[in-house]
Amino acid sequence: MALGRIVHYAVDAVLVSTVLAGIRQSSGFAIQTTTISDPTIRSLAERYLGIGETIFSMAQASAINSEYFRKESRR
User: Fold this and answer.
1) Under a CB-based contact definition with an 8 Å cutoff, are residues 14 and 55 in contact?
2) Are residues 49 and 20 in contact, defined by beta-carbon separation less than 8 angstroms?
3) Helix, strand, or coil (residue 75)
4) Do residues 63 and 69 lie in contact, with contact meaning Cβ atoms separated by under 8 Å?
5) What radius of gyration do the chain's Cα atoms show?
6) What is the DSSP string of 29-61?
7) CA-based angle 42:30:23, to the nearest 5?
8) Strand, helix or coil at 74?
9) pLDDT value of position 73
10) Which residues of 33-69 are buried (b: 16+ CB within 10 A; e: fewer)?
């Protein structure tokens, strides 16, 4: 029971990080980790956001190489 809850929270955290990475890549808006004064917390935040960047890049690469996705022109 406790292990399942921990896994659930970990997956939720990765999903939030991935959404933040998608927002950064599509709009250019990013969380400013430079405003975090504690270097340890700043490093953890940058690592957390980096995980989302990695997951988002892998999902994007899968979509690019898939026959089920096609690129539409922007209007």
Assistant:
1) yes
2) yes
3) coil
4) yes
5) 16
6) ----GGG---HHHHHHHHHHHHHHHHHHHHHHH
7) 130
8) coil
9) 82
10) eeeeeeeeeeeeeeebbeebbebbeeeeeeeeeeeee
17-28, pLDDT tens digit by residue? 999 999 999 999
Query: How many Cβ atoms from other residues are within 10 Å of residue 30's Cβ?
Result: 12
The CA distance from 48 to 17, in Å, is 7
H/E segment holding residue 64? helix 39-64
Give the C-alpha separation, 56 to 14, whole Å.
10
Residue 74: pLDDT band with limits 50, 70, 90: confident
| Cα torsion through 11, 14, 20, 22, rounded to 10 | -90
Q: Read off the pTM.
A: 0.82
At 65, give phi and psi (nearest 5°): -85, 0
